């Protein structure tokens, strides 16, 4: 198993993580950013939150069909996702690692890539920027309901519910 040593490790590629990574790299500090989902480079706001939801609202108000509004939302989020990725990946002292991270010790994190490869990243400083997910209340039958959708699931719809 490969071990990488780096001064700064950021777990999560959301707004705070990308901003910190860019800052550190621009101040001559090496940094690795780990993100478990390449669809989330840049975080919630650009991928499944603020920007795509406002795009749908504006296009709906303009009378655009649902299908066309969704297509445009996908194009927009794909473009912004790529820009966010390159904002970090193109920095000389920054590296993006795709995978799920978990702590091995206070200064070591194991990352499992989507294809199952494991690597250990040892870092002097580790920043946790993992975001959150919707909490579904413990109401009998709610989790099994086909009518229940989180905001993230709604933003992934390709057809009207």
UniProtKB/TrEMBL annotation:
Keyword Cytoplasm tagged: no
Residue ranges constituting the FAD/NAD(P)-binding domain according to the UniProt record: 9-153
GO molecular function: flavin adenine dinucleotide binding; NAD(P)H dehydrogenase (quinone) activity; oxidoreductase activity, acting on a sulfur group of donors, NAD(P) as acceptor
Annotated PROSITE patterns: PYRIDINE_REDOX_1
Pfam families given in the database record: Pyr_redox_2
Keyword Flavoprotein (UniProt): yes
InterPro entries in the cross-refs: FAD/NAD-bd_sf, FAD/NAD-binding_dom, Pyr_OxRdtase_I_AS
Keyword line: Disulfide bond, FAD, Flavoprotein, NADP, Oxidoreductase, Redox-active center
Domain of life of the native organism: Bacteria
Cofactors (names): FAD
Entry similarity comment: Belongs to the class-I pyridine nucleotide-disulfide oxidoreductase family.
Protein name in the entry: Pyridine nucleotide-disulfide oxidoreductase family protein
UniProt source species: Lactococcus fujiensis JCM 16395
């Amino acid at each position: 198993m490969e071990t990488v040593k780096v001064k700064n490790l950021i777990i999560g590629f959301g707004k705070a993580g990308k901003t910190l990574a860019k800052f550190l790299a621009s101040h001559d500090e090496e940094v690795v950013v780990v993100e478990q989902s390449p669809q989330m480079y840049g975080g919630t706001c650009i991928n499944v939150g603020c920007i795509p939801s406002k795009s749908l609202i504006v296009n709906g108000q303009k009378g655009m069909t649902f299908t066309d509004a969704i297509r445009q939302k996908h194009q927009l989020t794909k473009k912004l996702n790529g820009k966010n990725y390159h904002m970090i990946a193109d920095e000389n002292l920054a590296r993006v690692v795709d995978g799920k991270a978990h702590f091995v010790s206070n200064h070591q994190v194991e990352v499992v890539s989507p294809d199952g490869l494991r690597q250990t990243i040892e870092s002097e400083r580790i920043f946790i920027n993992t975001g959150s997910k919707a909490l579904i209340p413990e109401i009998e039958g709610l989790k099994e309901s086909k009518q229940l959708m989180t905001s993230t699931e709604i933003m992934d719809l390709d057809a009207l519910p």
